[in-house]
Design a protein that fits this description.
The chain is built from 7 helices and 5 strands, in the order βαβαββαααααβ. By secondary structure, it is an alpha/beta fold. Helix 1 packs parallel to helix 6. It is elongated, with a radius of gyration of 17 Å.
């Protein structure tokens, strides 16, 4: 089985790569297509990588992002459709919510959320924040990832980043 870690945005790519490099995910790099998370929104962007796999290889797409309503168009992989499954991994409203939780500002954010998106809130309230990459290099977000799962409600066809972390 090959795993595709498809991330909606660059921040998701950075976080998943950080977790992968720290060997905290439930998968080994060798099981992941291209051995890294991939920034993409549609499978056709990675079809060339999938095409070189044996036709009988099972493929699991982990779609990591905050926009989970769009369905993948798997027509570019129609020869493999019986061997492909998609797992939605929820990071809504935005990946920056993890920083808000990590900084113990979630209650304050709830008061402001009608006026500010999480990214705006982080820039306004987290003085040490310059960019997502620097932040995750200097902070362990695993406790925030666990807390996010505890406080959020997801759709039945979604899982959380916490579910991809080794216990």
């Amino acid at each position: 089985m090959k795993i595709v870690l498809g991330c909606e945005g660059q921040s998701e790519v950075l976080l998943v790569l950080d977790l992968l490099n720290k060997e905290t995910l439930i998968f080994d790099k060798k099981d992941i297509l291209d051995r890294r998370p991939i920034h993409f929104r549609q499978p056709r962007e990675i079809a060339p990588l999938i095409d070189i796999l044996p036709i009988e290889e099972e493929i699991v797409f982990y779609r990591i992002g905050d926009t989970q309503n769009d369905e993948y168009n798997l027509s570019c992989l129609s020869a493999r459709k019986d061997k492909i499954s998609v797992v939605k991994v929820c990071t809504k409203p935005e990946i920056e919510i993890l920083i808000i939780i990590n900084e113990h500002l979630y209650d304050e954010y709830l008061k402001q959320k009608s006026k500010m998106m999480p990214k705006q809130f982080v820039k306004a309230y987290v003085s040490e924040y310059t960019n997502f990459k620097d932040y995750i290099e200097n902070h362990d977000l695993r406790p925030a990832i666990a807390e996010y799962k505890r406080i959020k409600k997801n759709n039945k066809d979604e899982i959380y980043l916490e579910d991809l972390i080794k216990k």
